[in-house]
Every structure is written in structure tokens, then in C-alpha cells.
Amino acid sequence: MNSYRPEEWGASPEQPSTIRPPYLMGTGVVTGEDTDTRPLAPPHSHPDAMLAWCYRGTVWVQLQESMWRLAPGQGVWIPAHTPHTARHERDSTGCYTYIGDSSLITPIEDVTQVLVPRAVQEMLLHLGINDMPTDLRVRIQSVLIEMLQHPSAEAADGWGEVPLPADERVRPLVQAVLADPGDHRSANELFLAHGLHERTVLRVFQRDVGMTFTRWRTGVRMTLAARLIVDGTPIGAAAHRCGYATTSAFSAAFKERFGLTPRQHVARVQADSAHQLYWR
């Protein structure tokens, strides 16, 4: 997914606003079939704040220096004029809600995660396909904005930000890891395959993302692992897919990352009311 160069991010075009007065917001819906796992569009921005949220499956939202994995009910606020792109996994549905700055209760100034309540999800989709009097639509939109900006509980374990190094020298390496987190080659074998020196990679990752390559790669693997096991993938199969030779090594890495064993994580998520409300 990290296939765009710095100059492409720098040249990101700004698309025109889709919000027409007196309306306060608008929502676009994109399915995996619409994109076939390709990025929706090259990096671009919008003049309005955007809430990218997942209705079904998995949606990846990418900024120049990070990306976010969204499961159902999870969203990310993106400030106006911020370049981004997105990708949907197969059979996934992603939604993009645009809100003008003047309609927000609190300005959106930073990229932040948010839970989108089930009732809000359904009403946003309802507004997109049903006619109603203008004054009623505006009143509903006003309430939805208030609900979206109302402080909510933190998101479920296993989601969040994956930082991306900006240095062009490691771009092919980063792309390879994101495309196949379970690649069984060692770090040094990957460096050699991409013509990189270990010291170069260490300096780039410490400078750009504040961690070693090994720790970053483990984070990418754990992001995949958390979704796999909650989706019902057996722990042994998830371990293999994430590049671990044994289940015990995988479980130890998972517990270090999340503070729970894989089985404890699944039990906690399944017992969470948020999981029951959001997961499809």
C-alpha cells in the first residue's frame, strides 16, 4: 500500500467539497468490489474534515507517514487539507463522512481514532439513500455531528496506527513487509534482498518511526494477527501466517504487544459489548 513517493504526496490535489448548503455533511460509501483491493485513489485531500470509518470487513487508511487499520465501528478523523488515500480488503465496506469546519462542535486539528456508534452508522447510511424534508435532514445531521464528536470509550484492543518511514531508500523494504507480514526471511535476508545495509535501515527506522526495524515488523505482524484470531482463524494458523514457526513464540510476541495471550484477547473482545455491536 505504501507505493507513493514523497513528491506524489506533496503534489496531492484537493478535491472540491461535496457539501452543499444548507446541509452540514455528506457520506460516501465504497465497497471492496469497487476497488478490488487497490487504493481508492492517489493521495489527495478535501477542504472539509473527513471521518473515514469501516462498516464491514477491514479498511486501511494511509497518510504519508502512517496508516490505520479499521475494523467495523472504528473510524479515524482526518483534518481538512490533509493528504490521504485508502484501501479496502475484499468484501469490505468503507464510508467517508465529510463535515464542514463551520459545522463542527470542535475543530478537527489532528488525526485521531474514534468509535462510530452503530446507531450513527445506520443513520448516516439512511441519510444517503432516503429523501426527507431539508429542515429534518439538517436537524438529524446536527445531532449526528454532536454524537460523533461526543467523547467515547477507547477502541477495542488490536487497532491503531502503523507508522511508516519516509526515507525513499527503505520504501521497497516497507512495501514487501506490508504485502507479506509473514515472510519467513530474517531481517538481514530482507535487507540483502533489497540491497540495504543493516546500519542504514537501523538509522532510518530510529529517525523516522522511533523504533527498530524488528520492532516495527513485529507491530505489523501483530496488527494482522489481532484481526485473524478475532475473525476465527486458529491460533496456530495465525502464527504461521504472521511468520512464526511455533505457536508459543507467536503467543509470547502477542502477549508482549497486547498484554494478553491470543486466547485471552479473543475472549475479551467477544465479551465486549462493543464487539457485539460493531463486528460484522
How would you characterize this protein structure?
A hairpin with a 3-residue loop joins strand 3 and strand 4 (66-70). Helix 3 (118-129) runs antiparallel to helix 4 and helix 9 (235-241) packs across helix 10 (247-258). Helix content is 41%, strand content 17%. Residues 153-158 and 273-280 have low confidence and may be disordered. The radius of gyration is 20 Å and the shape is globular. The protein folds into 2 domains: 6-148, Regulatory protein AraC (Jelly Rolls), CATH 2.60.120.280; 166-273, Homeodomain-like (Arc Repressor Mutant, subunit A, Orthogonal Bundle). The chain has a 5-stranded antiparallel sheet with strand order 1-7-2-5-8. A 4-stranded antiparallel sheet has the order 6-3-4-9, with helices on one face. It is an alpha+beta fold and 280 residues long. The chain has helices at residues 6-10, 32-35, 118-129, 134-148, 171-179, 187-193, 198-208, 213-230, 235-241, 247-258, 262-271, 273-278, and strands at 25-31, 49-56, 59-62, 66-70, 74-78, 85-88, 93-99, 112-115, 160-163.
Helix fraction, binned, reads 40-55%
Strand count, sense and barrel status of the largest sheet are: 5 strands, antiparallel
Uncertain segments are: 153-158, 273-280
SSE order:
HEHEEEEEEEHHEHHHHHHHH
Query: Strand-residue fraction?
Result: 15-25%
What count of helical segments does DSSP give?
Answer: 12
At the third CATH level, what is the topology name of the largest domain?
Jelly Rolls
Radius of gyration: 20 Å
